[in-house]
């Protein structure tokens, strides 16, 4: 069904939910759950973690109409930061007009490692282990038969001597799971045979979050005409975005902020789908440093002849659609409903595309109006709320604040006090 999303942001939460229900984008059960605002019962929270006292809520938003590999997604975002949802929605709209995102899932396997030490003859140990490769992979699979039954399992192993260590790596097809328990169980099961084969000791056996066997690439091509109606301004914007992308390759101070902007979107969707955002962040930041210095994860290249701006980003995306807290948190079930129950590869493609979109919006704002114009317009609402504004006062205080020279809580409080005096 074709849905007109224009003005979605101007509706109130109940109207937005009603629209999703009417358009058949959200099942009744999940509509009721989100509408009741009781998304995580304390009893469930108490099962998910330890020493639980309460739950901490965050805004649960929607970025509509994200076109990835020819399919439109309604994307749930969990974030507290003003303008992240607005920026992603804005980018989704422009990139959709230009044909959307195309993605490539290079592989989907997780890597784990066993750090062996005090191995007297590393070369000999490597040879002996590789001779037993088939048996070791079988032993790993026997330790976790359910993943083999689902079509996954241990796929490869290799070794690398590094200083005091001989490091053993195992790569596992984890199917729809993130696979931490799976990998750790398999690794612990083959630690003893490895010690026997090498005569060495084992320091630890653990999954690696540097998920280089789960790389995903997202690409988009944006026609200059979608950057600005003014031809010269569009050209300038494309050139400046290319330069901004270069800056993030040469300066780690800029690269960290550039990548933070990417994670504004990625974390919001990773959180909404109940995935482990620490794992995703750790893997991606390690990947950003793979050439020896920390760099921007995305690149933007201007093609003046075709009048197109090309965006591209590759990063590890070890996410799951099953396991962990995914089946426990009812709001996460609503997210999967909104997304159309994607498989792990499809979700990973969407997440990387969201990161690239978020980066596009941030760079476009940075090299044109500056970040304050859009971001602060929305930040003003937060300051108005913190100052104690209620109902219609919120918009009034926010609007006065955006034209003031000092943009802070004290100014918001002064504006609110003046407003209330005038109303008396
Ligand atoms: P604009 O051109 O003023 O937007 O940009 P507009 O009012 O013309 O609206 C265009 C569309 O944007 C709307 O279409 C919505 O889709 C969306 P409509 O629905 O009206 O047909 N939109 C909104 N959606 C939801 N709520 C809203 C809203 N406003 C617009 N309130 C915009 C305004 C904020 C989009 C733009 O200025 C922008 O993208 N700025 C970038 C903001 C940003 O990146 N914020 C993240 C926080 S800053 C940060 O942490 C990262 C950073 O440091 C990273 C880096 O340095 O690389 C910047």
From TrEMBL:
- Presence of keyword NAD: yes
Pathway(s) per entry: Metabolic intermediate metabolism; (R)-mevalonate degradation; (S)-3-hydroxy-3-methylglutaryl-CoA from (R)-mevalonate: step 1/1
For this protein, what is the EC number? 1.1.1.88
Any GO BP annotation: coenzyme A metabolic process
Q: Which GO terms describe its molecular function?
A: hydroxymethylglutaryl-CoA reductase (NADH) activity; hydroxymethylglutaryl-CoA reductase (NADPH) activity
Q: Which domain of life is it from?
A: Bacteria
Q: What class of enzyme is it?
A: oxidoreductase
Q: Which CDD domains match?
A: HMG-CoA_reductase_classII (cd00644)
Q: What protein name does the entry list? A: 3-hydroxy-3-methylglutaryl coenzyme A reductase
Q: Which Gene3D superfamilies does this chain map to?
A: 1.10.8.660, 3-hydroxy-3-methylglutaryl-coenzyme A Reductase, Chain A, domain 2
Q: Which InterPro entries match?
A: HMG_CoA_Rdtase (IPR002202), HMG_CoA_Rdtase_bac-typ (IPR004553), HMG_CoA_Rdtase_cat_sf (IPR023074), HMG_CoA_Rdtase_NAD(P)-bd_sf (IPR009023), HMG_CoA_Rdtase_sub-bd_dom_sf (IPR009029)
Keywords recorded for this protein, A-Z: NAD, Oxidoreductase
The answer to keyword Protein biosynthesis applying to this record is no
- Cite the source lineage: Bacteria, Bacillati, Bacillota, Bacilli, Lactobacillales
